[in-house]
Design a protein that fits this description.
alpha+beta; Alpha-Beta Plaits; 2 domains; six-stranded antiparallel β-sheet; 7 helices; 6 strands
């Protein structure tokens, strides 16, 4: 069933915890890049296997049929862009590491996959979380490996006075309320001692 959702908030960390969480989050980003690269290799293998022995192969159709296994093997579309953009219909090339391992900017650390984004702001020792409104957007965002890593890391924080934060969200069913105060944003998660 359809449910349009959104969520956003800010989490303040102590200096010590911020440095640790940021460092471990960078490791999670690198793991996600490695996973994307390994999925691209699996996807290419599946495509080549599905086309074996066939003539006049429609590579894009085979890509579409092979793209989903248990998860989307080309979640960020890198494999598609490298092989089928501009209407190309050629045998897919072996994935290149450079296409999947983008340089991580440690000074302006952020992650954006189109559905949600995470930003680390060194000056304030804050983490910003934003999920744009879309059908089951909050659910999909929280299922993403990078988001799971972030919330797992936040679960390990030693909260001190003045640290923490709140995520608030809304959804189409809540907004349908017609009573006084109904339809407003509501707290989805809280962190720390704030």
């Amino acid at each position: 069933m359809s449910c349009y959702q959104s969520e956003n908030g800010t989490i303040k960390l102590s200096t010590k915890e911020y440095a640790r969480i940021k460092k471990e989050f960078i490791q999670a980003l690198k793991s996600n890049q490695e996973l994307a690269f390994q999925n691209a290799i699996k996807l290419q293998t599946k495509i080549l296997s599905a086309a074996k022995g066939k003539r006049n192969v429609d590579w894009q159709s085979i890509y579409s049929n092979c793209q989903f296994e248990f998860t989307d093997l080309d979640e960020n579309g890198t494999f598609y862009r490298a092989n089928f953009s501009n209407g190309k219909n050629k045998k897919p090339l072996k994935p290149k590491k450079k296409d999947y391992f983008e340089k991580i900017n440690r000074k302006e650390l952020w992650f954006d996959n189109g559905d949600f984004n995470i930003a680390f702001v060194d000056k304030d020792k804050r983490i910003y979380w934003n999920v744009d409104e879309n059908n089951h957007a909050r659910d999909h965002a929280h299922d993403h490996p990078v988001a799971k890593a972030l919330f797992r890391l936040l679960g390990s924080v030693k909260w001190t006075r003045g640290t923490g934060g709140t995520l608030v969200g809304n959804d189409e069913y809540n907004r349908d309320d017609c009573y006084e105060g109904g339809g407003a944003n509501y707290v989805t998660m809280t962190f720390g001692n704030k």
